[in-house]
Write a structure and sequence with these properties.
The chain is globular. It has two domains: about 180 residues, P-loop containing nucleotide triphosphate hydrolases (Rossmann fold), CATH 3.40.50; about 90 residues, Rossmann fold, CATH 3.40.50. It is α/β, with parallel strands linked by helices. The relative contact order is 0.16. It has an eight-stranded mixed sheet with strand order 3-2-4-1-5-6-7-12. Strands 9-8-10-11 form a four-stranded parallel sheet, with helices on both faces.
C-alpha cells in the first residue's frame, strides 16, 4: 500500500484533525515507552552508527549513510550497511549495495551478528533509531530543512515518531537540504539542549554536465523530500515547467510512466527524476527519462569527522 502523509502534518501549527487524533498519539507514545522498558539492548564487537530520524520519512538518511561509509573507507576501515528488510524499499537497498556490503534482515540485530562474524569493524544503520534492541555506539538524527518537524506532534497527530524533546538523548542532529531556515531550526534545537551537536548537509548534483539547463523540464519523484529535490534543481537554474509528486517509495506502473512521457511531449519538456525513482522504473525502455545523481556535501565536515573518528580510533 502506498502511503502519502496527510497535508496537515506539515502545517506550522496543529489543526482540528491533529487534536482529534491526539488521544491515539498518547497511547502510541505510552506503548513505545513500555517497549523501551522491556526490550533488552544488545552490544556487539562491531561498532554501530545509527542514521535515523524522528520525522517520518524523507530526511536524507540514505545519503548520509553513504557519505559516512565513504569517509570511513577512506580511512581504510572495514564497513558495512545494515538496513531492515522491507519489500517496498528495494530502491534504497540497491543503492546501498552498489556502494558497499549490505546486510538486510527483518531483525536488525541478526544482521549485526552476521556483520560481526564476518569481521566488519563499523556497521552503518540506515534507519533504526526506534529499534530498542540495539545499543548503538553513535546515534545521528536526520531532519529535512523544509519539512523540519511539521506541526510538531507525534503520529498520527503529526509526523514525528517520538517527541522532539527526545533529541536530548541522541546528542547528534544532522540537517539536510539546501540551507533553508537553518538559523531558526538551530535556535529551536538549542532551546531543547544547547550542547547538542548540529551538523549541516547540502545536496549537490554530480552529473549536471548531462543536462542543458536551457531546456524545459518536467520533474517527478516518489520520495519523502520532493520539495527539497525541486529546490536543489531551481538553485542550479533548471527551468521546471511541471512537477509531479507521488507517495514515498511509489511503485510506478507502465501506465504511470507513459502518462509522464505523454505529458512531457505535450509540454515540449525533458524529463528528470531522482536516482531512487529511476531505480524503481519497471519498463523495458525509458530512455526519455534521465535522473540526477546527488552527493551530500557536509558543510561543517571537520567537526563531524571528529565525532565519527571516536569510533574508529577505538578499533
Amino acid at each position: 500500500m502506498e502511503f502519502k502523509k496527510p497535508k496537515f502534518w506539515d502545517y506550522k501549527k496543529p489543526n482540528v484533525y491533529s487534536y482529534l487524533l491526539w488521544p491515539i498519539s498518547i497511547l502510541i507514545r505510552l506503548f513505545n515507552f513500555l517497549k523501551i522498558l522491556i526490550t533488552r539492548k544488545n552490544n556487539s564487537s562491531t561498532k554501530t552508527i545509527c542514521v535515523g530520524n524522528i520525522y517520518l520519512g524523507g530526511t536524507g538518511k540514505t545519503s548520509l549513510s553513504l557519505k559516512i561509509n565513504e569517509i570511513l573507507r577512506q580511512k581504510k576501515i572495514k564497513t558495512c550497511f545494515i538496513k531492515k528488510f522491507y519489500s517496498n524499499q528495494i530502491d534504497e537497498q540497491n543503492i546501498l549495495e552498489d556502494n558497499g556490503k549490505l546486510f538486510k534482515n527483518k531483525k536488525r540485530f541478526e544482521s549485526l551478528k552476521q556483520a560481526a562474524m564476518e569481521g566488519y569493524k563499523i556497521a552503518i544503520f540506515d534507519d533504526g533509531l526506534q529499534d530498542f534492541s540495539i545499543n548503538y555506539d553513535l546515534n545521528i538524527v536526520c531532519f529535512n530543512n523544509i519539512n523540519w518537524i511539521g506541526n510538531g506532534l507525534t503520529i498520527p497527530s503529526g509526523p514525528l515518531r517520538e517527541s522532539i524533546n527526545d533529541l536530548k538523548k541522541y546528542r547528534n542532529v544532522f540537517l539536510n537540504g539546501n540551507n533553508e531556515d537553518l538559523d531558526e531550526i538551530k535556535k529551536y534545537i538549542f532551546k531543547i539542549d544547547p550542547t547538542i551537536n548540529v551538523y549541516q548537509g547540502k545536496y549537490v548534483p554530480k552529473n549536471l554536465n548531462e543536462f542543458n539547463i536551457k531546456d524545459k523540464f518536467l520533474v517527478f519523484s516518489g520520495i519523502g523530500n520532493h520539495a527539497t529535490f525541486i529546490s536543489m534543481l531551481k538553485i542550479n537554474k533548471f527551468n521546471i515547467v511541471k512537477e509531479i509528486e507521488f507517495p514515498d517509495h511509489y511503485e510506478y506502473s507502465e501506465k504511470d510512466i507513459n502518462n509522464i512521457i505523454s505529458t512531457a511531449k505535450d509540454l515540449d519538456c525533458k524529463i528528470i527524476t531522482t536516482e531512487k525513482d529511476y531505480a524503481r522504473l519497471k519498463i523495458d525502455n525509458f530512455s526519455d527519462i534521465k535522473h540526477i545523481k546527488v552527493d551530500l556535501e557536509i558543510l561543517n565536515e571537520e567537526i563531524f569527522l571528529k565525532e565519527i573518528s571516536k569510533l574508529y580510533e577505538q578499533n
